[in-house]
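Support request from a user on the community tier.

User writes: "When I paste my structure tokens into the form, the page sometimes reloads and wipes my input. The last time it worked, I copied everything first. Here is what I submitted, just in case something in the input itself triggers the reload:"
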């Protein structure tokens, strides 16, 4: 038996082949005097292989009934295609009909809206566009591991179940085995002593605090895993479950971590440009004409670096009417972020040194006493794609800050311990993987770059 070959490999062939076996799904079938032309796709690449079936085949009646979405196993010979548009085609010697898709198969030839495809998220990876999205998603995941591995970073699996709210923004999804119909309480408060962990627990919003513990042991580390935020914001850039890449580096200051983040984004843009050319071409045609330029822009421009204070000045001086007024001390809204990167600098911008009041407890206080060593990377169309900081390594300052913010010290005894033993300056950042994908594919809605999006009131699939 000849071994099955994937279509992406087959199309790279530089000779004819007597015997090949291809398995996949029918995209279209058309008949013409004595023949069927069947476009077969197996998901390995955007392109289909054209299969030519002669009516002399035993089961030609079945072949002539093949519908879009049906599954087949084809064996035959690979020959040069006389028709335009493709180099190779298969002359079938045998076609096994594995399954026939009935007429109500929703993905018939015509193009569907993204909104409609979200309602059939279980089928949408079978379309050209979503096939491409999820191939790029896979390619980028590997590239991220390559990037860090090449630079001597160790990959850490930080926990998903957690007892601490790293970002302190109160967006923790609670995890409990208590009976929700009969919640035990003492003095009007939930009594967690009988709960699975004996205390309040949730799904992690970030692996950072755990990653810090490992950076202080293994030097340079990173996590890459799912994170969860019960953030009730129904925007095109927020989901409740998303993947985050979080490097954490010992003996590294804020500038050092900006350098790594910039290098990483450039590296990944290069990978997409090189390894996903065919899929990117599709997006440039149907999603975002400017995409090849966006990618080139990342590769060739030095990211602008400005302080939060400078950013606020630029925004105040701009003649633009923002929905939210900007003043020193307020968080940048996405409209502000986009103005800076899209209109003003026209390239990625790193904003650093934010007022401490709008940032979490773990960021290092600057000498001015009012800002922290934080940085956000803003990119066109998306706004914030990376958030990071140098960490407060000075025990007394950290304790003071946590008290100021009302964070219970006893819950973080282990975190504070790391500042007592072998402590060093260290920094890190988090990249939102879905936002990165939006950026590198031109796709406008975060729901369309994750297999099954979790958003407020939506957990269908
Ligand atoms: O800026 P954030 O909240 O930073 C942290 O969580 C740090 N602990 C990271 C670190 O220093 N190790 O989140 C980091 C990134 C954001 O810049 C954004 O790209 C993405 O995560 N992000 C989201 N992506 C999709 N949906 C959401 N609800 C997101 N919230 C944050
Ligand atoms: Mg942030």
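"...and here is what came back when it finally went through:"
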């Amino acid at each position: 038996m000849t071994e099955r070959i994937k279509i992406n490999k087959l199309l790279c062939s530089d000779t004819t082949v007597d015997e090949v076996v291809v398995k996949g799904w029918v995209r279209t079938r058309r008949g013409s005097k004595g023949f069927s032309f069947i476009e077969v796709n197996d998901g390995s690449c955007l392109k289909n292989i054209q299969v030519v079936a002669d009516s002399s085949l035993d089961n030609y009646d079945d072949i002539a009934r093949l519908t879009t979405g049906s599954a087949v196993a084809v064996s035959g010979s690979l020959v040069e295609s006389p028709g335009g548009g493709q180099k190779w085609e298969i002359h079938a010697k045998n076609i096994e009909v594995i399954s026939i898709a009935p007429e109500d198969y929703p993905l018939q030839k015509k193009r569907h809206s993204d909104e409609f495809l979200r309602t059939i998220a279980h089928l949408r990876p079978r379309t050209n566009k979503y096939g491409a999205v999820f191939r790029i998603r896979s390619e980028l995941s590997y590239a991220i591991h390559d990037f860090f591995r090449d630079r001597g970073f160790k990959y850490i699996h930080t926990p998903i179940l957690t007892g601490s709210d790293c970002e302190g923004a109160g967006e923790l999804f609670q995890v409990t085995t208590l009976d929700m119909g009969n919640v035990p309480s003492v003095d009007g408060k939930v009594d967690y002593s009988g709960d699975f962990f004996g205390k309040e627990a949730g799904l992690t919003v970030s692996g950072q605090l755990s990653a810090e513990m490992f950076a202080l042991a293994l030097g340079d580390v990173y996590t890459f895993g799912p994170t969860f935020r019960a953030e009730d914001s129904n925007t095109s850039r927020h989901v409740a479950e998303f993947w985050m890449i979080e490097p954490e580096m010992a003996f590294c200051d804020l500038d050092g971590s900006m350098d790594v983040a910039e290098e990483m984004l450039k590296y990944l843009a290069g990978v997409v440009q090189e390894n996903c050319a065919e899929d990117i071409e599709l997006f440039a045609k149907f999603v975002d004409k400017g995409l090849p330029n966006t990618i080139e822009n990342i590769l060739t421009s030095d990211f602008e670096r400005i302080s939060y204070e400078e950013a606020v000045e630029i925004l105040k001086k701009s003649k633009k009417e923002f929905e939210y007024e900007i003043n020193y001390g307020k968080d940048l809204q996405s409209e502000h972020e986009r103005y800076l990167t899209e209109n003003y600098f026209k390239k990625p911008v790193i904003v650093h040194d934010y007022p401490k009041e709008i940032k979490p407890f773990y960021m290092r206080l600057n000498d001015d006493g009012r800002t922290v060593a934080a940085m956000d990377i803003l990119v066109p169309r998306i706004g914030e794609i990376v958030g990071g900081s140098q960490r407060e390594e000075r025990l007394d300052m950290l304790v003071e800050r946590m008290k100021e913010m009302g964070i219970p010290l006893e819950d973080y005894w282990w975190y504070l311990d790391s500042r007592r033993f072998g402590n060093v300056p260290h920094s890190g950042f988090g990249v939102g993987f879905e936002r990165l994908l939006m950026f590198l594919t031109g796709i406008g809605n975060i729901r369309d770059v994750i297999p099954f999006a979790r958003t407020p009131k939506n957990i269908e699939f």
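Agent notes: The reload is a front-end session timeout and is unrelated to the input. The first strand starts at residue 17 and ends at 32. Residues 283 and 289 are 8 Å apart (CA to CA). Escalated to web team.
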